[in-house]
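Quick entry between incubations.
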Amino acid sequence: MASEPRASKPDDQPTDLLAARAGAARPTGFFDQPGVRKFMKNKPAVVSLGIIAVFFVAAILIVAGGDSLLRLAGSPVAPANLPGFGIKPDRETRVTHADELLGKVERALEAREPESALADVGFEQYRLVDLETAGGIEAIEAMLEAAYEALDDFDDDLIAYEDVLFERDDVVDDAADEGVEPDAEVLAELDAELLQLDAAVGERLVTLEERVAELYPRPTSLAYEASVLLGTDRQGRSLSLRAVYAIKTAVQIGVVTSVIAVLFGGVLGAAAGYFGGIIDHAVVWLYSTISAIPYLIWLIVIAFVAREYQMPFAFLGLEEGQSLGQTLIPVYAAFILTFWVGPCRVIRGEALKIRGLDYVQSAVSVGASANRILVKHVLPNTAYLLFINFSLLFVGAIKAEVILSFLGLGVQGQPSWGIMIRDSKDEVIAGFFWQIGTATAFMFVLVLAFNTVSDALQDAFDPKHVG
Amino acid sequence: MWSYVVRRILYNIPIFVVIIVVVMAMLRINDPTFAYLGKNPTPEQIEAKRVELGVDQPFFVQVWDFFASGFGLGERSWYAESRTVDAVVLPAILPSLAITLPALALSTTLGVCIGLISAANRGRVLDRALVFLAVIGMSISFLVFIIIGQYFGAYRLSEWLGVEVFAVRGFDLGVGDDVESPNVLQHIAAAFGGWAHYCLLPVLISVVVTLGYDTRFYRSVIVEQSTSDYIRTARAKGASETRVMVKHLLRNALIPIITRVMITLPFVVVGSLLLEIYFSVPGMGQTLLTHMTNKDFPVTQTIVALLAAIFILSNILTDVLYAIVDPRVRLK
Amino acid sequence: MLDQFMSVVRRGAQRWNASVKASVVAAVLACLLPGVVQQAAAQSKVIPLPIRTDGPKSLDPVAGSTVYDNTAVSQFYETLLETAYYDNYVFEPLLLAEMPERLDDGLRYRFRLKDGVRFKNDPCFPGGVGRELVTDDVFYSWKRLADRDEGLENWWLMAGVIQGLEPQPEGEAFDYDADVSGLVKIDDKNFEVVLNKPVYRFLWVLTMFQTSVVPREAVEYYGDDFAASPVGTGPFVLDEWVPKSHLYVNRNPDYRDERYPAADKWSEEDREKGLADAAGQRIPFADRLEFTFYIEDQPLWLEFQQGKLAYIEVPYPFFSEGFSSRTKRLNRELRRAGVTYRSEPQLDFIFRAFNMDDELLGANGPNPERARHLRRAISFAIDFEEFNTAFYEGLCVLYDGPIPPGLDGHPEGGRVPGAPRGPDRAAARAELEAAGFPNGEGLPPIKFYTSQGGTNADQVEMMRRQLSEVGITLEPILLDFSQLIELTNKRQAPFFGFAWSSDYPDAENNLALFYSENASPGSNHSNYNNPEFDELYLQAIQMEPSPERTALYERLRNMVIEDTPYVGALARTRYWLMAPWVLNARPTQRTQSWFKYLDVDEDER
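Done. Structure below.
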């Protein structure tokens, strides 16, 4: 065992509790097991389990929702960079939105077939008023003109306001240059003027928005409200919808990679620990090799290579010549190939121990086959470890996805929290925290729930664990 | 002990070789040639480039060349054409260490301290609060910490105070700027100032991120030790609580602490990739990423070889340290 | 809400700051901030400048390609001709004493080198003293472009232009001493160049940094290290280059007497901005340029705000921080701080190209008529204005045809009647129907390849959505840039994103993208093949700028629009911000040799 002193040392101590549990009579029902009972007593853990269940159900529903949901999450629902909870953006953003909305109408009117072009103007539910309701193209043109007039009025007042503002700046700056206090009287006068002009600009903006609202009646449906609840990104896409859709992405990546990695690592570890000898050496050697490079490097190398790989033949629904970049396969590959090492180590240590236990030895002596012992004794007694590792890897996968997506090696073609966080890095500087906040909050809840559950699992089932 | 060390090294040579071969093979799944062509290449030029890069050679010849050339150190980088691999890789080590070593030291010290406090108050409100905080810290993405940390720590803070406390980016220890000064202390102070200016914020962010994990780990190590027989004996003998904590407990907790620190070492060398990118620190992580995404095989391979070697050596060192700290451990 | 919170904290911080005054805080900060202290001590003219990305890859002119290579190389080396600082659409002599003389209807040019041009002092020269520039240096530098051992990366600039100048056969060393029939030396300062055929572009090529003049001694002396050891005639010499970090250059103390452009050359507008104030003064003004490399945009932006950079190119995500994105007016804080700005439409051609060899979409495929309807359908369905708003802050110019704004042949207002410009879903649907795929029924998904990075992931999502509105399914594939090049070179990508920045301000550079001889792996990645186009193109490239040539350009442009081998196009507008203390700054993307004109107002700083 010279090769692996670290993994084996803490495990060499006999664990009486485990032996006692393993040797005890078979528990009558699942909920009667001491570990399960202990787990169920842990309130935060049960709540967390509920939260995880909600996320999983949401993921399943999203999968059932199919492509239409994906399309919706990728479509603008309202003007860009809208704050959440109905908070009004600053004046500059508001007038920019109005300007953009009007520009769309103007361009549609210039199209070859204005009627059909006008029908296409708008977002999912937030659309240009129906041509018939409005009273024909002429009516739309008239409304547009009125709105543009309001915009011009706004601009005039804004420039007047800014001129006074700059004048005030000059007064302050000049005084500062001369080292004297600015003339209080002049300042007070300017401030009063500013206040007045500011109010005027505000009113102009309200008028402008009313004119725009005539062209684009604000949708009242709950679906629309939900879609702008947490604001919109720079393309006007709904942050709430994207964050919700990303649940599916996260759960998908988490489940696929952790299940495969845990099973793969678990089976290898159990086999290594149980059979020992050459198998053990091979497995230990394999994971020593993998862990000889920081996992982030493996993730990057594997994702980088797999992303560019083109299928040499059709397989698993992938076409020949298809690049893997658009699929989740590079992410899966990177995670599975690096994550299996953890469970493998743990299960191997556990299997080593179980093999040494009396009742297993006696099963061997009465001639039970190796496979039978593995399935009957080793696997059930390591099941809790598999669960703990599953939840640890799940968390690892979600967090690693963010890093890969930031590096441009992660998910493509569907929303994910990592993509949202990556996209938000430029917004933060502009003081727009809605995207990073939304993605972080969603991710936080799920990861916290998993962390709580895996803690509770260890408390309940792992006698060595310190709670 | 030396025979043990030699044996371990021999045992690990195949691991080392396999890692390099695997990475080399993986890189070569996709053709690098097109990354290095001008605007209007002819088929002839493409072939010539392939020959120049040496990727026309059979794979095992390329592997052999890599080892024969001393891990590619003297080779010319493909991406940074003007420099050799060692000129690319070696200068990147210091900036990485300047961030990760202090971060490791700080978060280990803090982690052990908070772990001690937490363990001493086990089950009480303080302990629960600390554990909960740790879990919260663990549940937020590293990237979020970086984005928010840089925004408030480097930008808004400087704006509020009117002086730039932490740099937004860059790396410059400022050593040798003031050559005339014969005062060594002044140089040290300058270097420390430069370090604090550029590296302290990334270090702090890094500590915040890892502290959650460290605290939890050290807490459980200490709790485990404190319930063991010899501590009970020490207490029964009437040793003071501080003495128990520091002399007996910490001493016995050293092995897990060493293990954890040693496991982290290879990460120390590769640096914190994200921090390096975000703060434009020209360290190993950033170098690796830049050169790999630009298909610079020589640099990528050399960095991977370096990392693997460091990991293997740090593993062996861990075992040796065990034996020094704990006389019960025998190296065989 | 957050802003309120911040203002409270800020007020708190100010009060705290004021009460504690300079005592503890200052002591701590002074310890933390040697950088600030050092800055105050500087007395020579040092100009801090940014380079976006991780900087140049090589300081050898023949190995360079990016604008960042250009920025670095142009400080050390000089070209025969130079894009004028006061007007980026014309060139003027730099190493030459006068403009080249055009002989035999452009088949032959006569050059005369400036007197008194010396290479910088360097150990590669006997005695370490730089020698005078001579004709042989020019010939040697051009021959390096044709030297296979130097990579031929920029050979395309000269390929087929000069009589007898060809790369050596493979496996042989280039014979620099062999005579080239097209390079005729008259004496050390005078020479003639004979071209294979008249190509007006040739003179523009001589403004490009890849054709900079290098001394043979340095190349031979430094060998592989030449790429990091520049020995040129330029206004600056290398002090320190730390890749991925910074590039510091010092003034070349032996730089010849060169002067700032005369006042009458500047436009009225530029004169008002004070750009002509330094007219006639000796350059360079700066003692030292400190280029720092910025991979991320945020630090670049922040450091300019903190007054640490002389100028920056405004990164798109930060545009609305500095300007009103609607009115394009500079914001109050910057204006108040004395920051000025300059904007310039780029010679950009950002487009989405079709591969004309593609079975489904290509004109060279089995069903050219159907393919043309499909290409036009896609073109009508794509709304570039939406891209412009979402990703470029509305700063791009949209235009029909391949000729960017500012050049002869660019359509007025960017519009050509009849061009398939989107969004026009009705037209798109009509074209789809004409192609035999009403509402996209029966149409297989169309693969779209583009390079990953930047906002491309979001851009393809938008494109997919726009096309899905008319029933076209897009299958976007994001690749590494090198892989994209590989696929297009092999003609495997049916539809792909591409951008071309003109190497020189002449539409010929863009029209070349559709010349059939340049088909993949050349720059005509659309593999557009139109004999009529080819014929007119060959005619146009021999002409000097003239109304006739412009008319020809327009015909070529309309031909391309008619055949729709691409969807597009966009040209970005760049904005630069200049610090109040920087003088003579007129940032541009067209030339990178203007840093020699920069000056600083130390009092202001």
